[in-house]
Design a protein that fits this description.
The complex is a heterodimer of chains A (421) and B (357). By secondary structure, chain A is α+β, with helices and mostly antiparallel strands. Chain A has helices at residues 9-12, 22-31, 36-55, 106-119, 140-152, 183-191, 195-199, 221-224, 241-251, 253-259, 289-293, 335-355, 362-369, 371-378, 401-420, and strands spanning 60-61, 74-75, 78-79, 92-96, 103-105, 123-126, 133-138, 168-169, 209-212, 227-233, 238-239, 269-271, 277-279, 298-299, 304-310, 324-330. Chain A folds into 3 domains: 1-159, Alpha-Beta Plaits; 168-233 and 304-390, 2-Layer Sandwich (Sulfite Reductase Hemoprotein, domain 1); 238-299, Alpha-Beta Plaits. Chain B is 25% helix and 21% strand. The chains are: A alpha+beta (421), B alpha+beta (357). Strand 5 of chain A pairs antiparallel with strand 5 of chain B.
């Protein structure tokens, strides 16, 4: 390109080295793309970024941008140094929901690329930390054009601001033998029940659904999701004893003892003198470690379902919180099962919308009001699986004890008769 | 005007099955086991006998159209036209036969992508937007990650670690990058600098007061104008006031530092999920290549690689050897800043005689 380009001596340093360079990519858009609009955006973006590198400061400000009919889904960015870098002075990101499990054909990637070439900067990320496709860099006017185009072939905006956010799920049953759930269906049934709450931010703060097919929790749901759904099972681990013996033969007995038997968090495994595995399944906590080490010999049981944990979040405001077990186990087979899951999510969001303070995540509200008030609010009974241990502090009023004990025995009796059928 | 506008179709999350490899659709929920024949490659076998081979490659995450199309060209010519992206922004190509694996790897490597990131490797660093796009960043995540992955590329390509290593970066203390075996996060060290001329017009003052985790912000008058002030003795320099009130500038070219945390683990395997712990701070935020931060990450990785046992993640390893030994092996200083001092801190104090002497 004959056009003058900004000098970028610091960014040029990031073109060296073996890892693919995002700077080289932006330069390709600046120097090689036939559309002068895209050349100009890339040039000024690089100019502003170099300015950030020199001064060690960011120069983007938020604002209000959305598409017709929605209140969110776009991260508005206006440059504070737009006079120096006019072609990228409006540089908004569109958050677009990916297909569940992040599956794409090359055809659909090309189609998305063509739409973005028409209306945007030509820069895209698969995916942002919330799980959206991030189409980075469009003017206020072009956000609408781009959305109209991709929305016509099946893509919709995700969440931004105080709303239900784009959900995430692992590769799951599509490829993984450890999966105990249909992540795909859970993901879509949950988040697509709340499209209104995704597109029109009106909640106390963000609310995230994440779905992992097993307790390896590859989408970090316990740490990051307000509502985590994790596949699990409640019968016995399936053991192929011949494969166990073959594994011992291949890796050695000491390896199996050191890396499988003694790594079990509840000491529920034993290697017999015949190189077979004995598992005390009653005490298995489904940590997944032994299945990870010996995937050909061990598989999850057949009586599968999910555990629900709620209230996970990152740092601000009160510090990091892991999710807490709210439903230790539920089956997800029939339409009614899925309906129950969705209803529980509705109860949770409704209760939090009523009781959460501004900018307070669900987990922070639970911390403020106590787990018991939260459980009563969403209509879930207490369960010892919700705690690591009973209370240690004696500062508690127990004058409703008899009534509560009665409830426990009644529930146990009901469960027993339901199980008996 | 409005009547000419197109009404959105609120379709939400699209169905992934339409873009999924046919072998994966056919065997959905029917997989039997997997193997890891070489770094960057997975072989999954279904009960039906069908196989799917996955080749994983690292990319620059911020993809330009040329790179996206190159990845698609490779997918059409050397694979079956079906891909997915992992949560660490790696691309995975799924193919139905082993014979396609080698040519696919050669094509990816030939075009400058890096095949690896599986099993006990150092996976791609998951990161956030930074100076390229965020409104509150203290650093540039893409640059930090590019510079670090240049140095860790052999650990991405090979599987020589005791277990997988997930590294994350975050450009502010909100920590969008999340928990990691190693996390490199901005850590501010000075209270915000307030532009009192702008506060009243830009900020909703009560909600800024409410945002502070330690109640250090209060309403004030400066030169007759309503504004906010910060009790600097109480301030923990977290930057929570800055997003709702940009005139309270927290980013500082010199005093916004990097800190390194270790032991965050999202998995339930072997132990319950764990949060990361602070191990190093005061690291200069030094573009364009952040050598000081990379040097500490490499030091931690070397100690872990040499001393941890098979299958131990960093948190498992430190649980076994203890924190004094961790600081000894890594050569990092242990300071008063490593000791939690908030209300719940007693849980992290050693109330026993469990001391490795």
């Amino acid at each position: 390109m004959a056009k003058d380009t900004h000098d970028t001596p610091m960014l040029d340093e990031l073109e060296n080295g073996p890892w693919p360079s995002f700077i080289s990519g932006i330069k390709r858009l600046r120097d090689k793309h036939p559309d002068q609009r895209i050349n100009g955006v890339a040039n000024d973006l690089l100019g502003q970024l170099e300015h950030s590198y020199e001064t060690r400061k960011g120069y983007w400000k938020g604002g209000t941008v959305s598409v017709y009919g929605y209140g969110g889904g776009i991260i508005p960015r206006f440059s504070e140094v737009g006079k120096q870098f006019p072609d990228s002075k409006e540089f908004h990101t569109l958050r677009v929901q990916p297909p569940a499990g992040n599956f794409y054909s090359t055809d659909i990637l090309r189609q998305l690329g063509e739409s973005w070439e028409k209306w945007g900067s030509g820069l895209v990320t698969f995916h942002g930390q919330t799980g959206n496709i991030m189409f980075i860099g469009a003017t206020t006017e072009n956000t609408q054009h781009f959305f109209d185009e991709v929305n016509d072939y099946g893509f919709d905006l995700g969440g931004a601001g105080p709303c239900v956010r784009t959900a995430m799920s692992c590769v799951g049953s599509a490829r993984c033998e450890q999966s105990c759930a249909n992540e795909h269906r859970i993901h879509r049934e949950l988040v697509n029940n709340f499209t209104d709450d995704v597109h029109r931010p009106a909640l106390p703060y963000k609310f995230k659904f994440k779905v992992s097919g097993c307790p390896n929790d590859c989408v970090n749901s316990i740490e990051r999701a307000d509502f985590a759904v994790i596949g699990t099972w409640r019968d016995e681990i399936k053991v192929d004893q011949e494969a166990v013996t073959a594994f011992v033969e291949r890796k050695g007995r000491q390896y199996v003892i050191d890396n499988v038997i003694t790594r079990c968090p509840t000491n529920c495994m034993s290697l017999t003198d015949e190189d077979k595995l004995e598992i005390d399944d009653r005490n298995c906590v489904k940590c997944m470690h032994c299945l990870n080490v010996m995937p050909a010999a061990l598989s999850p049981g057949d009586d599968r379902g999910v555990s629900l944990l709620m209230g996970g979040k990152r740092t601000l405001k009160i510090g990091d919180l892991m999710g807490t077990v709210i439903v230790p186990f539920m089956k997800l087979e029939t339409d009614e099962d899925y309906q129950r899951l969705v209803e529980l999510a509705e109860e949770t969001i409704d209760f939090w919308a009523e009781n959460g303070l501004e900018h307070e995540r669900c987990g922070e509200m639970i911390e403020r009001i106590g787990l018991i008030n939260f459980l009563e609010g969403i209509g879930v009974d207490v369960d010892p699986n919700m705690v690591s241990h009973p209370r240690e502090s004696s500062y508690v009023r127990t004058d409703g004890w008899d009534e509560e004990a009665e409830k426990w025995f009644r529930r146990r009796a009901e469960e027993k008769s339901a199980a008996a059928g | 005007m409005a009547k000419d506008m197109r009404t959105p179709i609120e379709s939400g999350c699209p169905d992934g099955f339409q873009y999924m490899h046919p072998v994966m659709v056919k065997n959905f929920g029917q997989w039997k086991f997997h193997e890891h024949p070489r770094p960057g490659v997975l072989r999954h076998v279904a009960h039906s006998g069908d196989e799917i081979w996955t080749v994983k490659a690292g990319t620059q995450r911020i993809l330009d159209l040329y790179t996206l199309r190159k990845l698609c060209d490779i997918g059409d010519k050397f694979a079956d036209g079906y891909v997915r992206f992992t949560i660490r922004s790696n691309i995975e190509y799924m193919v139905d036969a082993e014979t396609k694996v080698e040519p696919l790897i050669n094509a990816l490597e030939g075009f400058g992508f890096v095949v690896g990131g599986t099993a006990n490797s150092v996976a791609m660093i998951s990161h956030t937007q930074g100076w390229l796009h965020c409104d509150i960043p203290g650093t540039d995540a893409s640059g930090v990650v590019k510079a670090m992955m240049d140095e860790l590329v052999d650990e991405f390509r090979n599987c020589n670690m005791p277990n997988r290593v997930h590294i994350t970066t975050s450009c502010c203390q909100i920590n969008c990058g999340g928990q990691g075996d190693i996390a490199i996060n901005v850590q501010h060290t000075k209270p915000p600098k307030i532009n009192h001329d702008l506060v009243a017009n830009v900020c909703e003052r009560p909600s800024v007061v409410a945002r502070c985790p330690v109640a250090a912000i209060r309403p004030a008058q400066v030169d007759g104008k309503p504004t906010l002030e910060v009790d600097e003795k109480k301030c923990i320099c977290c930057g929570a006031c800055y997003p709702p009130c940009p005139p309270m500038q927290i980013n500082d070219p010199e005093h916004s530092k990097l800190a390194i945390w270790v032991g965050g683990n999202h998995s339930n395997a072997r132990a319950k999920p764990s949060f990361q712990k602070l191990v190093a701070a005061g690291i200069p935020n030094n573009p364009p290549r952040w050598p000081e931060a990379t040097a500490i990450v490499k030091k931690i990785l070397r100690a872990y690689k040499d001393d941890a046992k098979d299958w131990e993640r960093i948190n498992d390893w430190v649980d076994r050897i203890g924190w004094p030994r961790f600081f000894e092996l890594t050569g990092l200083p242990f300071t008063k800043y490593h000791i939690d001092n908030w209300r719940g801190s007693r849980k992290s104090l050693n109330a026993s005689t469990y001391i490795r002497l």
